[in-house]
Write a structure and sequence with these properties.
This protein is globular. The protein has helices at residues 4-15, 21-28, 32-44, 79-92, 121-132, 161-175, and strands at 64-72, 99-107, 110-118, 139-148. The protein is built from 6 helices and 4 strands. Helix 1 packs antiparallel against helix 6 and helix 2 crosses helix 3. Strand 2 and strand 3 (110-118) form a beta hairpin. It has 2 domains: 4-54 and 160-175, Winged helix-like DNA-binding domain superfamily/Winged helix DNA-binding domain (Arc Repressor Mutant, subunit A, Orthogonal Bundle), CATH 1.10.10.10; 64-148, Lrp/AsnC effector binding domain/regulation of amino acid metabolism (RAM) domain (Alpha-Beta Plaits, 2-Layer Sandwich). It has a 4-stranded antiparallel beta sheet, with helices on one face. It is of the alpha+beta class.
Length: 176
């Protein structure tokens, strides 16, 4: 179980993972060695998986974000789940590299979801072709929700700042 100080540290890192341990210590009201020790432990225990940035993908040439839902005729179970996972991991080593998430789940009358970014529609079509190659999965339907990354109307672009605040609020609610 993560304690309040650890949650506060995770929250601060979600807002800005470049923040130094010294500045984090000031924000949290503890010593810098305490922050360093907590950060190391959280990394070892898997609470912190990686440090990264969230770039402006449209400035990097990506025009489309695709949320793609995959429905199978028959849900994958047992040994087939592990086989599908191995095939996906091996296939993703060589591409398509624009996939940022590939997971199974439930909802939207689907069995899995892929989140990916594409420079153009032709590149997106390559992703759909790549998904269709897994014929042993018996794919029934592939549907996507496409987001124009150059659209001027934005509601809440991808960020962890709001989730960082929610982490702290959830912890407070559990205590009451």
């Amino acid at each position: 179980m993560v304690r309040k100080l650890e949650l506060r540290l995770i929250s601060e890192l979600m807002k800005n993972s470049r923040e130094s341990d010294r500045r984090l210590a000031i924000r949290l009201g503890v010593s810098q060695p305490t922050v360093s020790r907590l950060r190391n432990r959280l990394e070892k225990e898997g609470y912190i998986k990686e440090y990264t940035i969230i770039p402006d993908l449209s400035k990097l040439g990506y025009r489309i974000m695709a949320i793609t839902f995959v429905k199978l005729r028959v849900a994958v179970t047992g040994k087939a789940v592990e086989e599908a996972r191995k095939v996906a991991i091996e296939s993703l080593k060589t591409g398509p590299h624009e996939i940022v998430m590939l997971e199974r789940g439930i909802g939207c009358a689907s069995h899995g979801v892929v989140i990916s970014y594409h420079k153009d529609y032709t590149e997106y079509r390559k992703l759909r072709k790549w998904l269709a190659q897994f014929n042993f999965l018996d794919v029934d339907r592939i549907e996507s929700f496409l987001i124009d990354l150059n659209d001027r109307v934005r509601y809440r672009p991808f960020t962890f700042k709001a989730l960082a605040q929610h982490v702290l609020l959830s912890e407070k609610e559990e205590k009451t």
